[in-house]
Prior knowledge:
The structure holds two protein chains of two kinds.
Chain A: H1 3-16, H2 42-53, H3 70-82
Chain B: H1 5-20, E1 29-30, E2 37-41, E3 49-53, H2 66-79, H3 87-90, H4 94-107, E4 111-115, H5 118-129, E5 135-139, H6 144-151, E6 156-160, H7 165-174, E7 181-186, H8 198-207, E8 210-215, H9 230-233, E9 242-246, E10 257-261, H10 263-272, H11 274-277, H12 284-299, H13 302-321, E11 332-338, H14 340-352, E12 355-356, E13 359-360, E14 370-375, H15 382-398, H16 406-413
Parallel strand pairs in B: 3-12, 5-6, 5-7, 7-8, 8-9
Antiparallel strand pairs in B: 1-2, 2-3, 4-10, 9-10, 11-14, 13-14
Amino acid sequence: MDERKQTILDYVVNEYLEEDDDRVIGPDTPLITGGIVDSFSMVSLKRFLEKKYGIQIPDADASPEAFDTVNRIDALVERFIKS
Amino acid sequence: MAFATGTRESYQQELAAIRQAGLFKEERYIRSPQGADIEVEFPAGAAGKKVINLCANNYLGLSSHPEVVEAARRGLDARGYGMSSVRFICGTQDIHRQLENKLTEFLGTEDTLLFPSCMDANAGVFEAVLTDQDVMIADRLVHASIVDGMRLCKAATDTYKHSDMKHLEQKLQEHQDKQRRLIITDGVFSMDGDLARLDEIVALAEKYDAMVFVDESHASGFIGKTGRGTHEHCGVMGKVDIVTTTLGKALGGASGGCVSGRRELVELCRQRARPYLFSNTVAPVIVSGAIKVLELISGTTERRDKLEWNTKYWREGLLKIGLDIKAGDSPIVPVMLYNAKLAQDVARDLYAEGIYVVGFFFPVVAKGQARIRTQLSAAHDRSHLDLGLAAFAKVGAKYGILGLGKNEIIEKYGT
């Protein structure tokens, strides 16, 4: 896994899993539909990405679908870094 | 005809899917007043069965208390059955305001507004007091009605790990750019029975200029030395900005709820909260009963003291038997079984033994966290609890779970 995906994955694990939660999260694990990330706290993830990668993700693009896996989040970040 | 065959079939498929997933809920008909001993008809049409109720929110045993019933009856005679109006047209009687004042005094707040239910209070309050310039920061295990209320509000949302004060502090720091911050928590969490760390939450709110909201539905009437709630237990009476609570649990158990707290916030709810504006309020008969409930529990702590004794006895009893329970002090005592089918099987067998409890599993609780939630009442006598413990011991032995911890139960039955 490349560095950026690993960074996003580490953030998700630290931010959303309780200490005694032993679920294993991979790049294709469904985060929102899988009940790991609740839609209310997606704002944290969005703020983290914007700060870390110096980008602005418009609310319209920060959809639950676009945030559902680490791979999809990475693709979104990639898109806004390039634009 | 709008409800065409295809439309009907699509709904039938949805219902079939719910059944197939094992999530179909069925009501059990109770043929007696609510209490420690009830008569239940289950399945529908079966002969009535007398059982001990260990799953009601009847914490203080006031649901069928003769003085409450009598006060309600007198209220029915004196103020009639219905109001046929929302509050601000011609649906407010003197007794509605009297009950609001009594709740204000009991909860130690500045003002109170009644709602048809606490679900409605939670649905209306956030939208009434916050704007899109503000942020709501909620514990991740708050009640579903709070989640719905937050969805209806334009303020930004964020959450913190359950009762994790370090995480909450981090969130408060992150949201200093917002106009107002509101920390949102349950006082007693309904599925685990644990209490919010309200003293620490209030300290953080003071440090980071935030308001505090607490849903006290599973606390009002019995948590704290005189039963005022979690804010009394944690020594922060008067420091919580918004309290919502229900009349549908310890406080008589009928229906109705309220928003109580800072005068300006309550007044904004009166002006803007949609469930208050567009729905009839609590019926006079219930208002009359609730006033009596507050009189009964304001004068003595006898009932909450008995509940505390029952809770201690029950928790110690379950541990002695060797069952795995969630630690805590509240009268919500979850017996952990982790596996959904096991929870259902144990509940069914306990019912056969004359103990009425219900299995909880996903999506009501997280996957792998299936349990039987037992709830104590001041209406229980020691004999009820001893019969309950004997039944749990018998059924627990049948399934070979006595003395087993979490990992051993999961190893045996899976999640």
